[in-house]
Amino acid sequence: MAQRKQLNWSTISDDNLSGSNKRSSISGQETRYSVSIPVDVIINILSRLPLKSIAQCRCVCKLWSSIARRPNYNLLFPIKSPDETPRILFAFKVGSNLFFYSSPQHHQNPDNNNNSAIVATRHDINLGSDLQQLCRPVRGLVCSQHIGKNCSWAVISNPITGEIVTTPKLTIQGIHLKERVRGKADYCFGYDPIDKQFKVLRITRLCGSPEHKISFYAKYHVLTLGTGAWRKLQCSTLHYPLDENGICENGICINGVLFYPALVKHRKHMIVCFDVRSEKFSFVSVDYVLGLPIHRYSVLINCNGKLGVNFCDAACKHFELWVLEDATKHTWSKRIYISPHASLNWDNYVRPAGMIGSGEILLYRMYTHNPFNIFYYNLEKKIIRRVTFEVPVLEKFDHFGAFTFANYVEDVKLM
After folding, report:
1. Rg (CA), the chain
2. Does 252 fall in a domain?
3. Which residues of 128-149 are buried (b: 16+ CB within 10 A; e: fewer)?
4. Do 125 and 263 fall within a single domain?
5. Are 207 and 217 in contact (CB under 8 A)?
6. Which of 201, 345, 372, 389 has a 20 to 30 A CA-CA distance from 328?
7. pTM for this structure?
8. Residue 163 structural domain
């Protein structure tokens, strides 16, 4: 009986997979074989695989990789993987280490009736050093901002595939270097659904000491993912994002518009609306409309396609949710919710991770300990249930910082 020869996949080229004949040397002998896999069959095969398996299959050859790169990728894969359902993305910061985990966000176990913890899935990815902050995920991608000596940069990553793209570094400096100008950069991440482009917005604030007579100044840049180059933007209204402890975390992209709270002249608070496609700025006043300023503990969330602003009040044990009904007319609606959950002590570190399809708002603590809990607040019934997540790596640490994002959808498209 003839011995079956093992096929060496490392010798297969794009021509093999598209139907051509090739010669390959196996065990020192010249062997002719033919592999004919039509492109539509390849697409059908890939469409039935889990997302992580698709990511691995991209390494087979350029043809398979090019399929995943196509702009109409989602149309080529009509069979949805179970992994494409919305998930919760966690990022735990312990010292200089950052650990990514994810879990399905719909859990039916009511509080106190099921004590078992949900096991979260770990995603290994190295974002490098000098991590300062994470922006909210956009269509499966995460933007992190990093700061070094007199410069800053952003890293765009895909926790599922492990792919990383680093933007060019820009210096943090003022107009006159000899004037002791201090600078700081903030990054926001958005997506244009029409041209299907990811963009990074960078706002650099510059200020100097009064004795050197340097007033506040800001510069604006944008980078389209895939171009590798920053471009300067003009903005008629001088502003810079609000931050907490030097970190801006409130940017959110909804339907092609980046929203973030900002401070303008005379200490006035506004919501900045940056159109990702046209790269134009517009502003929504909030001080006089809402009756209170947006402070550094306020959080922007997506409320069924509309911008929501959350205000936590630790003293009154409640939070307010304002929804922008009309950005042109600056029309807002207001709701007040009271927390009935004794274990959820309202403080300035309680954050909403987002609103999910069930109409619940997910709440978490930015600084916490193991076990890690997520609180599901039902806006209609006004009840809270707690879900505990098992994160083995956190058992070694007493306290850690947490970033939590709702409605995360895994994606394997190449950047």
Report:
1. 25
2. yes
3. eebbbbbbbbbebbbbbbbbee
4. yes
5. yes
6. 201
7. 0.79
8. 85-408
